[in-house]
Design goal:
about 280 residues; alpha+beta; 4-stranded antiparallel sheet; two-stranded parallel ribbon; 10 helices; 8 strands; about 40% helix; about 10% strand; elongated
């Protein structure tokens, strides 16, 4: 049934009043919020990991519109030259975003150049909203090592898929703990997993399960460096990643092995997904 125009206006007014009352926003603020464009945080964080590692200016699928909004905001704060406002979240944009994070008083991992919820929302105030928010969660102890709750959930799902437990040799936030790790464990989202007693086929199956739930994961052997056999796994889109771990994610998407030599990926082929994409599949 079509309402008379006056009745339709009353209904719309009542609906707006109920929405603004529930959110604590004024009608004008609610209208402004609806009018703002939005940045898909998942896509932007993914681009910030991949784009700096690309050999060209190929854009990360699904990220251009949001990255442009971020770059325009950084430009207007005089943190990014206008020539870099191109939808490509390369090294220059990562550096500019890190400067913005530092301007907010953030240090360490909170100023690593990856858009975090607080910094991205702050940058977008009055300019854009933020959707598909991701975050590492709190730090927790698992098996005697420290990881974040997002990584814990990912590991739990990999264990469920495998039907077996996984023993952690090294966790995250372990700055300077193992020189052979080259800083990858300094931030969040990174673990080393024991392969003791595993056959070659089992090691591959574990790596495949880890990749399936959103890790960039590889079997590491003593032939590659001064370390024992283990599986190294880095959680895609963990916003607490160290810069070295960010580079591993970018290389993984580009078909490389995550090592300094940037050799070809030697792990099982799977559809690359973030943890959030895996949960939505």
């Amino acid at each position: 049934m079509k309402l008379p125009s006056c009745a339709a206006t009353l209904v719309a007014t009542a609906l707006l009043a109920s929405l603004t009352g529930a959110s604590g926003l004024s009608a004008a603020q609610a209208a402004d919020a609806r009018a703002l464009p939005s940045v898909n945080m998942e896509a932007a964080v993914k681009a910030a990991q991949i784009d700096p590692r690309r050999p060209d200016n190929t854009l990360t699928p699904g990220a251009k519109a949001g990255v442009l909004l971020i770059e325009q905001a950084l430009r207007d704060r005089h943190l990014l030259d206008a020539k870099w406002v191109d939808g490509y979240f390369g090294t220059t944009t990562v550096t500019a975003f890190a400067k913005f994070q530092k301007s907010l008083g953030f240090t360490g991992l909170a100023a690593n150049g990856l858009p975090g919820k607080t910094s991205l929302t702050g940058l977008g105030a009055g300019r854009f909203g933020v959707t598909h928010i991701v975050g590492p969660g709190a730090r927790v102890s698992v098996g005697g090592v420290v990881i974040d709750t997002r990584t814990r959930s990912m590991l739990a799902e990999a264990k469920r898929l495998l039907g077996r437990d996984l023993v952690l040799l090294q966790g995250s936030y372990n700055r300077g703990g193992d020189p052979t790790s080259a800083g990858t464990h300094d931030g969040g989202g990174v673990v080393d997993i024991s392969v003791k007693g595993m056959s070659s086929a089992t090691r591959t199956a574990v790596t495949r399960a880890l990749r399936s739930v959103g890790f960039a994961a590889w079997v590491r052997s003593p032939d590659q460096a001064d370390w024992p056999w283990h599986i190294h796994a880095t959680a895609i889109n963990d916003t607490d990643l160290s810069s070295q771990a960010q580079h591993q994610i970018g290389d993984y998407y580009l078909g490389l092995n995550g090592l300094a030599g940037r050799g070809p990926d030697d792990g099982p082929k799977v559809t690359i997904r973030t943890w959030e994409e895996y949960r939505r599949r």
